[in-house]
Amino acid sequence: MSESIVIEVADAVVRALNAGQFSEQFTAERTYNPERKLSQYKTLRVTVVPKGRVTAAADRSGYQQDIAIDIGIQKRAETDAEADTMMGLVDEVFAALNGRVLTDTEGFRLAVWVETGNEPIFVPDHLREDRVFTSVLTLTYRVVR
Amino acid sequence: MNMLANAADWLTEQRHEHLTDAVTYWRGGASVEVSATVGSSEHDVHDGFGGSIRVETRDYLIRTEDLILDDERTLPVSGDQVVEVIDGTEVTYEVAAPGQNEPCFRYSDSRRKTLRIHTKNIDEVEL
């Protein structure tokens, strides 16, 4: 059974994140069901979840797929300073993945970056009610086949 | 004191004697061990990208007179912590309002003998 191109791209994002150098230590993971207990956010959580796919003709014989991947960045933040630190990490991840070409496990070109969104920049309800900082980056990568 | 007030006090003492577990109440570096009656529930908060955060909430009922920190009677404040050991795991609950514009505690009786303190589970460490 062949692997979904969506999963290949999501896993490539996970590899890119885990190979990166960031000011805060984390291990990104891909999941279908990002559900955790509040107590688990003592540790920084970076979660990769496929979000959407748009397919269009690329030329007479091929087509392209724009695959959107969500990256959730979450950690307990008890003070504004801790939330600021997390905002800094969001910028680092943003910078690390913008413009990047994703490769497969053998190093071959898999997908090229199209755009990045950051919506929400943070979730006010999480911060106010549960002291959890949550920011979601949505990266879109294009695969041409 | 009227008969109903006497009955309420008796019930408070019965709860304290027979329906409580020992927990430690913390504020900064100050703490006090108190006997508390515990009620808990869980709910999910949507995380913004398809998943959820599972929040375990606990209400602790303790006698108002027992909440003494640094030799002074006090009332709960958001951010205080309640620590208890459950099946070999040290579990920390943070005092927090259950919702926006709600207090983190309320009195559970008209005579203010018992506090109902709202908390959320924020940490677990296996001992």
Short description:
The complex is a heterodimer of chains A (145) and B (127). Chain A has helices at 5-19, 80-97, 124-130, and strands at residues 29-30, 35-37, 45-57, 63-76, 101-103, 109-118, 132-144. Chain A has 145 residues and is an alpha+beta fold.
Give an overview of the whole structure.
The complex is a heterodimer of chains A (145) and B (127). With 145 residues, chain A is an alpha+beta fold. Chain A is 28% helix and 40% strand. In chain A, a hairpin with a 5-residue loop joins strand 3 and strand 4. Chain A is elongated. Chain A starts with a helix and ends with a strand. Chain B has one domain. Chain B is built from one helix and nine strands, in the order H-E-E-E-E-E-E-E-E-E. Chain B has one helix at residues 3-18; strands at 21-27, 30-46, 52-63, 68-69, 72-73, 81-86, 89-95, 105-107, 114-126. Chain B is globular, with a radius of gyration of 16 Å. The chains are: A alpha+beta (145), B mainly beta (127).
> What is the overall shape of chain B?
globular
How does the major sheet of chain A shape up? 6 strands, mixed
Could you give the count of β-strands of chain B? Answer: 9
Distance between the amino and carboxyl termini of chain B: 47 Å
SSE layout:
The complex is a heterodimer of chains A (145) and B (127).
Chain A: H1 5-19, E1 29-30, E2 35-37, E3 45-57, E4 63-76, H2 80-97, E5 101-103, E6 109-118, H3 124-130, E7 132-144
Parallel strand pairs in A: 1-3
Antiparallel strand pairs in A: 3-4, 4-7, 5-6, 6-7
Chain B: H1 3-18, E1 21-27, E2 30-46, E3 52-63, E4 68-69, E5 72-73, E6 81-86, E7 89-95, E8 105-107, E9 114-126
